[in-house]
Specification:
Belongs to the FMO family. By secondary structure, the protein is α/β, with parallel strands linked by helices. The protein contains eleven helices and 21 strands. Bound molecules: flavin-adenine dinucleotide.
Length: 455
């Protein structure tokens, strides 16, 4: 629903990664007073590469991490640059920078820094400042506006600062807190075990026998880059029915082997797989994904993380009992991220200003329950609640705020890359056959206003 009211709120945004930056822009555009808290010295979130990981717990067992970014040195984007940009700020090639369609991670950091400069966002950001606590000032009462106590600590400061905000937007990302499998003997295994969160370069694994657990994006990337350095790489996957692309890579490298899941780890260094085979390994790298974690957030149980389901959240964004005063940007996975974050940010901004209203608490809860039920019917485990992989969902979401639907060329380019990666895992970032779709993209309003000399 749309109304004419326009109220300005004091809003705290936590995180200056892609989600926090676009939220800052949208909220300020809507007339709110915004403070962005960023624990790091610079914007970028995951894209701010952190080479030093020595002080991090290798398995990330602690609730409070020392390193945010899980990006490794060689990482290149898995999606082409054309589909990644915010709707009014295309991710184009710039002189003297990485011109590839699937550039290295630094290129995305530069894009985000450009975004920040172009829209003058830096002045809203308090760098080196960690939010340690967010809690309600009063218990929520119907018809009464909620307010939030935010306690933060600047790196060099002795004391925490305590402030009150009308609203809090959580944009802290969810690719930092390692998610680990539970394997018999894991605690007793005395050799090296780590999560991909702290994997940076292949050199420390020279001549080692390495087990890489998990064959999704990081597992594949890390496995492939270790083949030139490690003695043997043993990829342990949930299913041996892997993609054509991965099969081809495995058959190309004599030191890369595929195994089923691990059954148990043994004190003598043996790793026993569920099919009864075993190897003796030097290192195990768990590429088993990440968990949602909000160690600073105290909602008196109104939002919880249960087996990686953050909830209850209406449309993955608002906890019905605390909406719109508390919101989350960037929770969904397996979407074209940046435009989706942008639509979330717009919706939050307009709800806070009173321009739009949410459905009733009952309706929101009902919608969440229906969503959970539909996932159960589809056999999707709870920990994949926020894995959406669904363009229609983005369009439905966009309709709430009159945000444009994802352009057909974005969808098509995305699908074409997924198909290519499935078949040509080791080459899809450099060899593709989508020039027609690319031309369509360049002619679309997203790019066309930049002029032909841009490409
Ligand atoms: C290995 C890897 C590869 C990826 N590849 C791709 C890809 O190819 N394409 C793609 O679209 N996405 C990719 N992603 C996903 C990536 O996380 C998103 O692109 C994007 O960074 C999410 O943005 P965000 O702002 O939500 O979170 P983040 O980028 O994680 O930003 C969160 C920010 O919050 C800050 N923060 C956290 N807690 C606090 C606190 N308590 N106080 C203050 N500040 C805090 C952090 O320092 C950080 O700056 C990849 C992720 C990983 C790990």
């Amino acid at each position: 629903m749309v109304s004419e009211r326009n109220l300005s709120k004091n809003v705290c945004i936590i995180g200056a990664g892609p989600s926090g930056l676009v939220a800052a822009r949208e909220l300020r555009k809507e007339g709110h007073n915004v403070v962005v808290f960023e624990q790091n010295h610079e914007v970028g979130g995951q894209w701010l590469y952190q080479p030093k990981v020595e002080h991090e717990d290798p398995l990330g067992s602690s609730n409070v991490l020392k390193v945010h970014s899980s990006i490794y040195a060689s990482l290149r984007l898995t999606s082409p640059r054309e589909i990644m940009g915010f709707t009014d700020f295309p991710f184009v090639v710039k002189k003297g920078r990485d011109p590839r369609r699937f550039p290295g991670h630094k290129e995305l950091l530069l894009y985000l820094q450009d975004f920040c400069e172009y829209f003058g966002l830096r002045e809203m950001i308090r760098f080196n400042t960690t939010v340690e606590y967010v809690g309600m000032l009063d218990y929520p009462e119907f018809g009464k506006d909620l307010r939030w106590i935010v306690k933060s600590k600047e790196k060099e400061a002795e004391e925490r600062v305590e402030e009150v905000f009308d609203a809090v937007v959580v944009a802290t990302g969810h690719y930092s807190q390692p998610r680990l499998p539970s394997i018999k003997g894991m605690d007793a295994w005395r050799r090296k075990q780590m999560h991909s969160h702290i994997y940076r370069v292949p050199e420390p694994f020279r001549n080692e026998v390495v087990v890489v657990v998990g064959n999704s994006l990081s597992g594949q990337d890390i496995g492939m880059e270790l083949v030139d350095v490690a003695k043997e790489i043993h990829l342990s996957a949930k299913s041996l029915d892997v993609s054509e692309g991965l099969s081809k890579v495995i058959s190309k490298h004599q030191n890369l082997h595929l195994h089923p899941q691990i059954d148990s780890l043994h004190e003598d260094g043996r790793v026993l797989f569920v099919d009864g085979t075993s190897i003796v390994a030097d290192t195990i790298i768990y590429c088993t994904g990440y968990s949602y974690s909000f160690p600073f957030l105290d909602t008196k149980g109104m939002v919880i993380v249960d087996d990686d389901r953050v909830g209850p959240l209406y449309e993955h964004t608002f906890p019905p009992s605390l909406a719109p005063s508390l919101s989350f940007v960037g929770i969904p996975r397996k979407l074209i991220g940046f435009p989706f974050f942008e639509s979330q940010a717009k919706w939050i901004a307009q709800l806070l200003s009173g321009k739009r209203t949410l459905p009733s608490w009952d309706e929101m809860m009902q919608s969440i329950k229906e969503f959970y039920r539909s996932r159960e019917v589809d056999g999707i485990p709870k920990h994949n609640t926020h894995d959406l992989a669904n363009f229609e969902y983005c369009d439905k979401y966009a309709d709430y705020i009159g945000f444009p639907h994802l352009e057909e060329w974005r969808k098509e380019l995305c699908l074409s890359v997924l198909r290519n990666a499935d078949i040509n895992l080791d080459t899809y970032r450099d060899s593709y056959d989508d020039s027609e779709m690319l031309q369509e993209a360049y002619q679309s309003p997203h790019f066309a206003h930049l002029g032909p000399e841009t490409f």
